[in-house]
Task: inverse folding
């Protein structure tokens, strides 16, 4: 029997497959499309996802295909400088088109041994206490111990499970595409700047290869958003919004997206779980959806591997919902707020001006940016040290960087005292006795990190440590 079937080979599914393979879990990814999508939705990775790639030794390949930008202007597009002293070693946004991100994650998943089958659509599922039976469009049946629906916003898995997806339907729709145009570049830039003074859902920017990425409000909300707009529809909406169609022609691809905002009620129903857009959808303000999906997968991977490996402590797999559901709820809320701030109405425009003034206060700017870049996420592990439940930033140790020691996806005890022990858990937790170069970056005697880099314990007392290890890493071996 297959250990885990992942339905959907987008960024969430591929990230999850890679994580599971680090623990030798037999993974099969089913992707309904025969070829990867060409159209560009996400434009980049935010800080926490960049850190995640670093923690798995994947960052170099992303850096080779991306461009670094300052971390500013991401909250409702309000332009402000990056806040000083962000608590990260990677204080930038990595511009990288989604097809490249998808490809790099798929390559990694395949390299570490995930089986990937394209052109395979999941159409049915049933589960019992031992496993899940999955039915494909061609009638094939497969059996696995667990199934994860990473099959996007219209998730078949979520619908078959009957999991509610409460929230708001799309109220507005936006057209997006890549195309060529005949307008003079300087005249185009001037018109774009003028129109954007009142309409923030409009833009046309050069891609550097002769084509432009063009975005414009649609006339209404389409019944079926999987049907792309025509070039004529695009031209018509450009004339309505900007007074000219800029002579657009030769589209590479055209698409439409709405502002529906919904969150799955449950991320787990017994042996079936949901992750990424299958669990939450929201408009693209701030560029958070793909990042959220990658971070869901990073939270889920080691927990599901522990369950498959038979050493998961009670409640570990359920903590995926407990930890990630509130994070998505917070992202949905911030996109709702950003949506209001993008409105052309006078009231919201006044609120936008006021917020823009408030963002001149460093702390307000930092607070809002940290929401988007997701380094402020804190899971509720109970009271205690301020680091508890938060992900730990990368730090320089005497013999290398902390994140370099986390590529295997295991737990890690960073021990600056040299007096602690993880005996009994050595198969699941690495014991690193070393000191941090700069105590301003990290000033604790020892910290226990989960495989996703979140801090499970801080202190120096071996007895306290022994109480925390089983909570995350199961019973001691032997
Ligand atoms: C215009 C736009 C701009 C965006 N910009 C950003 C951005 O800048 N930053 C950001 O972080 N996010 C952005 N997003 C969001 C981002 O694109 C999504 O959040 C992300 O793609 C979600 O990844 P996923 O793997 O969960 O789902 P998807 O990428 O939707 O992948 C799901 C996969 O499942 C497959 N599938 C579906 N059904 C089945 C089935 N039954 N069986 C098998 N396979 C199936 C699909 O073919 C697809 O490959 C943007 C979105 C839009 C629309």
Result:
């Amino acid at each position: 029997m297959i250990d885990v079937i992942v339905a959907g080979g987008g960024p969430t599914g591929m990230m999850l497959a890679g994580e599971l393979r680090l623990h030798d879990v037999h993974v099969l990814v089913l992707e309904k499309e025969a070829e990867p999508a060409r159209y560009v939705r996400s434009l980049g990775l935010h800080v926490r996802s960049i850190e995640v790639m670093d923690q798995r030794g994947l960052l170099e390949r992303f850096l080779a295909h991306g461009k670094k930008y300052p971390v500013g202007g991401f909250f409702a597009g309000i332009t402000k400088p990056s806040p000083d002293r962000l608590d990260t070693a990677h204080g930038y946004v990595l511009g990288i088109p989604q097809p490249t991100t998808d490809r790099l994650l798929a390559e990694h998943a395949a390299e570490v041994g995930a089986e990937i089958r394209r052109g395979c659509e999941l159409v049915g599922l049933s589960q019992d206490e031992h496993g899940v039976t999955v039915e494909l469009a061609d009638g094939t049946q497969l059996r696995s111990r667990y199934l994860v629906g990473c099959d996007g916003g219209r998730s078949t898995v979520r619908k078959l499970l009957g999991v509610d997806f409460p929230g708001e339907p799309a109220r507005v729709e936006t057209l997006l595409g890549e195309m060529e145009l005949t307008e003079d570049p300087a005249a185009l830039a001037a018109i774009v700047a003028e129109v954007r003074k009142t309409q923030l859902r409009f833009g046309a920017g050069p891609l550097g290869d002769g084509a432009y990425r063009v975005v414009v409000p649609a006339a209404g909300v389409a019944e079926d958003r999987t049907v792309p707009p025509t070039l004529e529809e695009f031209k018509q909406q450009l004339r309505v919004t900007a007074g000219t169609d800029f002579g657009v022609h030769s589209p590479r691809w055209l698409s439409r997206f709405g502002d529906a905002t919904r969150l799955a009620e449950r991320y787990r129903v017994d042996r079936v779980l949901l992750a990424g857009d299958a669990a939450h959808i929201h408009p693209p303000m701030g560029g958070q959806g793909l990042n959220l999906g990658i971070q869901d997968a990073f939270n889920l991977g080691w927990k599901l591997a522990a369950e498959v490996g038979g050493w998961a402590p009670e409640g570990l797999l359920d903590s995926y919902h407990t930890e990630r559901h509130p994070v998505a709820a917070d992202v949905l809320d911030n996109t709702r707020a950003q949506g209001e701030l993008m409105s052309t109405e006078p009231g919201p425009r006044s609120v936008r001006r006021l917020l823009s003034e408030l963002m001149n206060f460093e702390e307000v700017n930092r607070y809002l940016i940290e929401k988007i870049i997701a380094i402020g996420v804190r899971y509720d592990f109970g009271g205690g040290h301020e680091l508890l439940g938060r992900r730990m930033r990368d730090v320089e140790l005497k013999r290398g960087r902390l994140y370099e020691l986390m590529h295997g996806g295991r737990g890690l005890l960073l021990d600056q005292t040299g007096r602690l022990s993880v005996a009994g858990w050595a198969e699941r937790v690495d014991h690193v006795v070393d000191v941090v170069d700069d105590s301003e970056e990290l000033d604790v005697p020892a910290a226990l990190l989960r495989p996703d880099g979140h801090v499970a314990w801080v202190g120096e007392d071996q007895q306290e440590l022994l109480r925390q290890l089983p909570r995350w890493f199961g019973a001691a071996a032997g």
Q: What stands out?
A: Residues 7-13, 30-33, 41-44, 98, 121-122, 150-152, 156, 176, 257, 276-277, 284, 287-291, 293 surround flavin-adenine dinucleotide (CB under 6 Å). The radius of gyration is 23 Å. The mean pLDDT is 96. The first strand starts at residue 2 and ends at 7.
